[in-house]
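Contributing: when you submit paired examples, paste them exactly as shown. First protein:
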Amino acid sequence: MSNTDNHTLMLLKRGIWIYFLLILFEGALRKWVLPSLATPLLVVRDPIALWLLYTAWQKGLLPKSGYLTGMMVLACIAMVTAMLFGHRSLPVALFGARIFLLHFPLMFVIGRVFDKEDVLQIGRVLLWISIPMVLLIGMQFYSPQNAWVNKSVAGGDGGAGFSGAMGFFRPPGTFSFTTGNSLFFEFVAVYVIYFWLQTKSVNLLSLIGASVAVVASIPLSISRGLFFTIVVIIFFAVLATLQNRKYLGKMLTAGFVIFIGLAILSQTATFQTATEAFMSRFTNANESEGGLEGTLGDRYLGGMVTALANSGKQPFFGYGIGMGTNAGAMLLTGSAAFLISEEEWGRVLGEMGTLIGLGIIFIRLGFCYKIAVFSYKKMTMGETLPWMLLSLGLLNIPQGQWAQPTNLGFSVMLGGLIIAAMRERRVLQAEQPVLPHNEQFDNPLIRRAS
């Protein structure tokens, strides 16, 4: 293996880490550090994604995949139809197309460049970050909306919190909106549960601290979505335990530690108040949405069915790619709004029409089906990391709100990490390519740089 190969691999890995850290702290930059650059920082990860794709392609590291090719072709066609039959705004079309031309392909680059050890390192870093993050959202929860810690991207006294319950607001953490905070702790929860099954590969102090942080984040976030997602993640862990009985003792240990942490937290006034607000939000929302069935059905399946039912009422080629994003609405009307649909499938079908929109949706579903099949096979062989990441991936990749940059970034990382988690790090020989052939995702052999 040449020095050039090693250097390229290290550069790409660093670029992926920068992309990942910007997901976590882009909102902090926009709110607190560089508020005057809040608008351009919205797409701060785009140049990183472009550089990663270009470098990977230049060095023969960009894998061949029908999902990748199909998505890019459909996005290009959607740009043409937007200019001919839709909103006819090139900036809006480019903003919408970048989701599929820059970020979706990045999943395959991450899956090609990273391996299992890199995926684990992401998790170890997340565990440590979760501890100050939960302290931050605690400060935001109890601080007034005009406090500096609750400053929004837009500025003013309104604050970045979103309506919650009992006069408390849902805190955003370092993110520009509360959904970023929920996605962060969902991501952490995946690794917390995985590392309890594999305690030898993590610092135990960080694992205990992160476990407490995840438990505390549920009431402090006032997010039912976070609660339901953690339930799904635990369900996946139970399935893994049933398949591999050696994890049973570790699962029981994890449950005991979390129970003790919950018991200690419940004795504090801070946690009790947050829990009351969360339960109030939970009860009121369940009454208005019809309980658990209504909540999950409407948010996950209901949005899909409604989007398909309404697709026939829209133009055949849609209103134009990018129009359904807040940034696109700002460019077209001067104010942020959901011009088409707040739900992802409704936005995709409304922007690109039934034919192209369904093509985009089927590619996302097909990709999820493939990673689900291989993650399950890995789980049956005793490797639970892809399976645990899949628990969150299946909730975000098929119909996560990719129009929102933070949601998009988490989906990209999840897709890439699931692929990467399936491949062990190998000891490289002198003439061995930087990365081995991965037949599961139609990746070609990587050519040695000349």
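Second protein:
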Amino acid sequence: MAAVELSGHCDARFKRVREVFAASFESGAELGASLCIYRGGELVVDLWGGFANAAKTVPWRRDTLANVYSTTKGITALCAHQLIERGELDLDAPVARYWPEFAQAGKAELPVRMLLSHRAGLPAVARPLAPGDIFDWKTMTTALAEQKPWWTPGSKHGYHALTFGWLVGELVRRVSGMGIGRYVREHIAAPLGAEFWIGLPEELDARTADLVQGPIVSSGGPNLMEEIAREPEGLLAKAFANPPLFAMSPNSREWRAAELAAANGHTSAYALARIYAALACGGELEGVRLLGRDAIENARIVQSSGQDAVLPLVTRFGLGFMIPPDNEPLGPNPRVFGHGGAGGSLGLADPEARLGFGYVMNCMHTGLWLVDPRPRALLSALYASL
């Protein structure tokens, strides 16, 4: 395959990172993608290339946006941490203090901490939901307020793949008086000059990449879709298919416009890297403060670790952020934190190395992993270059 022309710049120290990024295009693993890295508050890698659509008629540009699925969760968690730091939200207070309706079904004493750490036992709604319900915030938060936990809260952890967004997002709304999309715009994106949308305006569709299904990698056992089909009333199926997530096109106007605080953030690698660069540098970048050092340290204290009760994987979480488990390290520092998304996107902070990392793409790779092999290879090259 012919060499792909990358745009942007890359500090000479990180030549190997550029080579790994280029190789993904040359192998056909990428359609369009962007990569951005800050070190010590300095932009050292800012690269993009390929195409924003399957027909390869629209070039990927520096400001191309893409849906990053669960990478959105890290930004939603950051909103909650700002409220916690300001003393407006108490981690150990009952959720029902802020959201009285949540007290139903034995949840009156369930603490805020358990929502952020995936320990609340609310990864799914049991009663059948209609496909369009996923786009109705009130319908989903009402259903979760009524839902009885699937396990005794705190007894184990399981990935709240979609429900995390409504659970934590509703707390943000109740405490701040703002929907999650507005809160992100006003308190994170606009101050930092880091474009991150939860609820994408229609006028930005023209520079938003279409997601395209790429390879589905089998590890020898049943994949996620096969497991869901095998037990349609099981917890995994309810978590991902009630409402039916996989039936929704992420390229539709309805999907882009909705506020899905766990799954439909639209952003660029540049924006992701700026947000995580601030968190890697004591909470501040270029004079803009997102969070204090103590709050950042609190956010990355491990709350949950081990076999996940929903995913057939080992997972580890701080307060809303993924922390790599021992079997899937992301470089030499076991305390890096951030969040990856279905298909491959990743935002990550390494406070010890003062690194902020953002990777966004539109060719969706699927496999039983927490972090896609493409950003994993980029991180490997990054750490080897330090």
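If you have annotations for the second protein, write them as plain sentences, like these:
The chain has a mean pLDDT of 95.
The longest strand covers residues 42-50.
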